[in-house]
Design brief:
By secondary structure, this protein is an alpha+beta fold. It is built from 2 helices and 18 strands. Helices cover about 15% and strands about 45% of the residues. Keywords: Dioxygenase, Iron, Metal-binding, Oxidoreductase, Vitamin C.
């Protein structure tokens, strides 16, 4: 895990190319619909998927990736529902921050997780306006960030961008 800026971390190779392709196939089979929050700046499509095997695999990898990090927090739990987002050319999400989610009874999330499933696109970076950090999609790479950070999904200019979005509960503090 690499710290990119205060409250933003990157995990390279969180998923393999084969796993990413498989997840895209599952999401497309589920069918995408226009984002629920379109009126609030979400110009993309979404699908939802519950798979305990995928959640267990991601939880194991996240626990390992976050182990002994210099910021003093540990992985506790991952939201049990996977959110798939699809952005086609011209689509984007305006700047916003995320809210904590109840993952389990009395266990609230502290971080947002994005995992890029595709990369043969132009545009579509995740941008954090306050720090100027811009992250371009790389297959299998995860980005963790504090819910409170303002961020946006920049407009996709060419191709189709697929990501997973989830919420993570952590223990400890952020240094």
């Amino acid at each position: 895990m690499y710290k990119l800026s205060e409250g933003i971390w990157q995990i390279v190779n969180l998923l393999t190319l084969k796993e990413c392709d498989s997840l895209i196939t599952k999401a497309e089979a589920l069918g995408f619909r226009m984002a629920r929050m379109k009126s609030q700046g979400r110009n993309n499509s979404e699908a939802f998927f519950q798979c305990s095997e995928t959640i267990k695999k991601l939880s194991f990898r996240l626990k390992y990736a976050l182990k002994d990090n210099a910021d003093g927090f540990e992985f506790v739990s991952l939201k049990p529902v996977i959110e798939f987002y699809r952005y086609q050319a011209g689509e984007f999400v305006t700047a916003h921050s995320d809210a904590p989610q109840e993952i389990e009874h009395n266990v609230w999330s502290t971080l947002t997780l994005l995992i890029y499933l595709s990369e043969d696109i132009e545009g579509g970076a995740t941008f954090f306006p306050e720090s100027g950090i811009q992250i371009h999609p790389q297959v299998g790479t995860g980005v963790l960030f504090k819910h409170s950070l303002l961020h946006e999904g920049s407009q996709v200019l060419r191709g189709t961008k697929y990501i997973i979005r989830s919420d993570i509960a952590t223990s400890g503090c952020f240094n």
